[in-house]
Write a structure and sequence with these properties.
The strands form three sheets. Strands 5, 6, 7, 8, 9 and 10 form a six-stranded mixed β-sheet that branches. The chain has a two-stranded antiparallel ribbon with strand order 1-4. The longest helix is centred in the first third of the chain and has 35 residues. The model has no long low-confidence stretch (mean pLDDT 93). The protein has two domains: 370 residues, no CATH class; 101 residues, 2-Layer Sandwich (Transcription Regulator spoIIAA), CATH 3.30.750.24. The protein is α+β, with helices and mostly antiparallel strands and 533 residues long. A hairpin with a 2-residue loop joins strand 5 and strand 6. Helix 1 packs antiparallel against helix 2, helix 1 crosses helix 10 and helix 1 crosses helix 14. Helix content is 59%, strand content 11%. The chain contains 21 helices and ten strands.
Length: 533
């Protein structure tokens, strides 16, 4: 703790500025994520404040921003709807109980050093899950953007209803949503550095709020559009907040915490939330100009602490969020104090200017979520996955389809099973499915030779990683795969990450022995399989 405050003396200016810029992005997203999750908008604010003002002091990463994430919208909304059985407020309180228990489980994950579990899940399956989440978010929010309440609840039904919603859109609400969407897609294309200094979500608010005032969304009324039909406008199209922050605090209801439905959502909150948080923290480590490495176990425990507190007072679940964390890096943040300042700015804004928040049109928040969903399920993601290998695209697509047809747990499980089947078809020896076979010996005082045999695949990467973690950091490493039958994409990705880490430290990490292997694509991290003799 003393070192943390010592850091503050050196970095407070950069972290204060970065925290403010991240706050500008976080505020509207927190409101939108909460509304899309079936939670009161204030719950997103509560989560961001806890993520900044509390979790900062327990975190194991320097550059990540903690707060609600679009990736958990589907789980939160599902929990409210299934547990509430038509009673939204009851479902909200029951969902809070699931979040609290999931937070405790995440604390246990951190204590027993489960941070390494993030390496087990195949990259393509995780990306497929995120792409499916993106599709689900867009299918729900397009109707909000158009000012129409759809009849369906399931994703495929909502997609099918889009033409009907377009035909029956509320024109003035749709104008706010469409203008917001254009800003979000167009602003990143502008190269002027002064324009790019203003976060796109804040530009959306600067345009959408005046439009909402012009259309008088604060008062219930009807209007005639093009002399063809009457449409209704009113406060329901604006963000609603309680009279004070304290009145927004809601206690969880633990009465159904042992029901099968609650247990399902506890597993999803703890498992999916942990995976997303771990992946985000590792991704931001790669962007950190100082090349610091997160203590993933400590960070997972910190997120668990945050989720436990958040669930107890009415907040959404939180993770180490990738978009805001990337913005922190790009804005010149230096330490975890940027996360603290972002939470402080949110607290001050909500306490001092609640009326401004109530003036935000829901269509503008829907546009931000559609943009987020599009980035998760962008055609570029499909192309990138295909370039790694056709088998990776198959895993990616299976995960998407099963997630859309069922739920996240079944979808990610289907992706993992698909990868297992692909490996068995490609002749992975059964004895090496979960156990890596390797020998480590010293060539000299400064060099290790790691000889890997049988197969190195996602399902044995945890044990493989532990062996590499046990090597002296000041040694060079040569990894020989001459005796392997198959090395999959997950392991290749990990090896290239190690290669980068060794280079940063001024050490050598050499990968060799693939002369007799066939790569599944031209991608550096594609799967390698030994040629048949």
């Amino acid at each position: 703790m003393r070192s943390l405050f010592a850091t503050l003396r050196n970095t407070w200016r950069a972290d204060l500025i970065s925290g403010f810029l991240v706050f500008l992005i976080a505020l509207p997203l927190c409101l939108g994520i909460a509304s899309a999750s079936g939670f009161p908008p204030i719950s997103g604010i509560i989560t961001a404040m806890i993520g900044g003002l509390v979790v900062t002091f327990f975190a194991g990463s320097e550059m990540t921003i903690k707060g609600p994430a679009a990736g958990l919208i589907i789980i939160a909304l599902g929990a409210v709807e299934e547990l509430g059985k038509g009673d939204a407020f009851a479902g909200y309180r029951l969902a809070l109980a699931a979040i609290v228990v999931a937070g405790v489980i995440q604390i246990i994950f951190g204590i027993v050093r489960s941070g390494i579990l993030g390496d087990f899940f195949p990259t393509s399956a995780v990306h497929g899950m995120l792409a499916a989440i993106g599709i689900i978010i867009m299918s729900k929010q397009i109707h909000v953007l158009l000012g129409v309440k759809p009849a369906g609840k399931e994703t495929l039904d909502l997609i099918g209803e889009i033409p009907n919603s377009i035909a029956h859109l509320n024109p003035e609400i749709a104008i706010i949503g469409a203008v917001s969407l254009v800003i979000l897609f167009a602003l990143p294309l502008i190269k002027n550095r002064f324009v790019r200094m203003i976060p796109a979500p804040m530009v959306v608010l600067l345009v959408a709020i005046p439009l909402g005032v012009m259309y008088d969304l604060g008062h219930e009324h009807t209007y005639l559009f093009l002399d063809s039909a009457n449409y209704t406008l009113g406060p329901k199209f604006l963000v609603t907040l309680p009279s004070s922050l304290m009145s927004g605090i809601v206690m969880p209801d633990f009465s159904q915490v042992f029901s099968m439905t609650s247990i399902k959502y506890i597993i999803m909150f703890s498992l999916i939330g942990s995976i997303e948080s771990l992946l985000s923290a590792k991704a931001i480590d790669g962007l950190d100009p100082q090349h610091r490495k997160s203590n993933l176990n400590k960070d997972l425990m910190a997120v668990g602490i945050g989720n436990t507190i958040s669930g107890l007072i009415g907040g959404l679940p939180m993770i180490s969020e990738i978009v805001r964390s990337s913005a922190n890096v790009n804005s010149g943040g230096k330490s975890r104090w940027a996360n603290f300042f972002h939470g402080a700015f949110i607290l001050f804004f909500v306490a001092l200017l609640p009326g401004v928040i109530h003036s935000i049109p829901m269509a503008a928040l829907a546009a931000m979520l559609i943009y987020t969903g599009f980035r998760l399920a962008s055609p570029i993601e499909f192309i990138k996955t295909y370039k790694v290998g056709r088998e990776q695209l198959l895993i990616f697509l299976v995960t998407i389809v099963l997630t859309l047809a069922t739920d996240l747990l079944i979808g990610i499980a289907a992706g993992i099973i698909t990868k297992f089947i692909i490996h068995l078809v490609n002749g992975v020896p059964r004895e090496s499915v979960f156990k890596p076979f390797l020998t480590i010996k010293k060539l000299d005082d400064k060099t290790y030779l790691v000889d890997v045999s049988h197969s190195a695949v996602f399902s044995n990467i945890i044990a493989l990683k532990r062996r590499f973690d046990g090597l002296d950091a000041d040694h060079d490493v040569i990894v020989d795969f001459s005796n392997t039958h198959l090395v999959d994409h997950t392991v290749m990705h990990y090896l290239h990450s190690l290669e980068h880490d060794y280079t940063v430290r001024g050490r050598s990490f050499i990968i060799r022995g693939f002369e007799d292997h066939v790569a599944f694509s031209d991608h550096p991290a594609s799967t390698r399989k030994k040629r048949a003799k």
